[in-house]
Description:
By secondary structure, this protein is an alpha+beta fold. The protein is 27% helix and 30% strand. A hairpin with a 6-residue loop joins strand 8 and strand 9.
Amino acid sequence: xAMPQDSDWSWLRAAAEAPEMTLEVYExxxxxxxxxxxxxxxxxxxxxxxxxxxxxxxxxxxxxxxxAARKHDQRKGTCHRVRADIDVLLTEVSFHFRRPDLALFRCxxxxxxxxxxxxxxxxxxxxxxxxxxxxxxxxxxxVKRVRYARAGIGHYWIIRLAQNDGPAVSVEMLRLTSDxxxxxxxxxxxxxxxxxxxxxxxxxxxxxxxQLDEWL
Length: 216
């Protein structure tokens, strides 16, 4: 695809009939536009701002996973990072990246440049977490379940909120199987389980429902 002339990105801001997005074009996007989109097989997906309660649950889980990753690395001598809303490159051709609510990935070297500096590929990502919002139900439950598995991300957790707007009421933990699809490993429900998360893979972490409510 030909690059827009004179840095005129009005075609993307309008987002009506935007042409196919490639990695080359994405690298050239202004930062304010790049932060507003995901790309699925070259098709632009406009991201919507999450609700306050969504952000609260995301923040609480980010803290819990980051602390668990720190302890894991101290014990094992490894290096991992946990980030919220970071681009994860699924494939270059056709160009496809998503921005999970949370991602756990191996520490990256300094060789990668451009817009993907400091950002992981699917091969470097151990866990993707999505917190379901009103506008992302089918995407999180169906589409991303297939695409994250196809890209080889070992673990995918899906958090459901009451009325899709908090507090958290269930956590579905999926593990990638040898046939390249996700299988249910564990699902917890607020009304009957003591812990929201009790996992040993990809890192050992426990999270209570009260912890997930901490910032509500």
